[in-house]
Amino acid sequence: MKHLPKHLQPRWRYLAVSIETWPDAGIGRRAFQRELWYAGQNLLGDPGSADADLRLMRFEVAGGSGGAIVRVRRGEVDAARAAIACVDEVNGHPVGLRTAGVSGSVDACSESYLGDPAPSSTQREVAFDGADRPARRRDGAVDVDAQTGWVGATVHDTE
């Protein structure tokens, strides 16, 4: 089978997506890809989802934060961004997604927008709700391990 000539090959754009969730959330690559497909299909319908062709190229989540690179057809970037914005949970764990940028290659996308997808986090005890509780601090955000689950806070809330 012959390859298509270069002018007939599909053109791709790569979206850098920042991911934020609770530190103990078990989010895997396959589950995230499945949620992308469902969001694209629910928002854009079958033809729109097929046109966008959302494909996960890279996925890394550790300690509640990370990044992903999503491949999309060149003319469907806006539709893909809307579909990504519709993803609010993966495997029953809430996630926050933010499209950091769009690039023409995986390497440029990774270098320009993701950098280190898993920023360092420190664990310590904080005074929260009248008791000392374990917490993780990363980039100005604090995730406190309360009895009912994780609570998002800022550094100023724990001082």
TrEMBL record:
E.C. no: 3.1.26.5
Compositional bias of kind Basic and acidic residues: 126-139
Localization annotation: Cytoplasm
Listed Gene3D superfamilies: Ribonuclease P, Pop5 subunit
InterPro entries: Pop5/Rpp14/Rnp2-like, Rnp2-like_sf
SUPFAM superfamilies tied to this protein: Rnp2-like
Function recorded in the entry: Part of ribonuclease P, a protein complex that generates mature tRNA molecules by cleaving their 5'-ends.
Stated family: Belongs to the eukaryotic/archaeal RNase P protein component 2 family.
Subunit and partners: Consists of a catalytic RNA component and at least 4-5 protein subunits.
Protein name in UniProt: Ribonuclease P protein component 2
Source organism per UniProt: Halolamina pelagica
Gene responsible for this protein: rnp2
